[in-house]
Description:
The chain is mainly β. The protein has helices spanning 4-10, 53-58, and strands spanning 62-65, 72-75, 84-85, 95-97, 104-107, 113-115, 118-120, 128-132, 150-154. The chain is elongated.
Amino acid sequence: MTLQPIRNALGAAVLVGVAVVAGCGTDPGSSAFSVAPSNFGSKDDPPPRPETKEQCDACGGIWAVHGLLPSESCICPAKDAGERCMDGRQCVGLCLVKEDAEFYVTEHSDPPRGFYVGTCSPYDVTFGCHRVIPSDIEERLPLPPKEASLELCID
């Protein structure tokens, strides 16, 4: 299926999203997706992670303790922050969908099939639990709402 009709149907749509499939307290065996680092943030092969505060300052990042590890590290602003996305490959970081997302129905079946539209995350690494659109989902669209995004927790 070509995605051009889906992309054309978006027009000036509001960009928000929802659906839980895997992660954050759910049974990983029930996931429709493989939750692996390679499934997220693959746009344009970003530069290596800053390893010092000076390198972090150079990317305009935040040098602090992030997540559960007690050591300081850097998160850099993503150059595509806030851009629309339909697939995790389209973002440097994650393709995030909001809680009140509209599900765009392209096939009126039972259940209906379609997609969510998200926005690229503000940083190249996003800690915490978020609803995301994984990489390589475009090839599987349209999907039922419960498979079109997933919840991912990064600690």
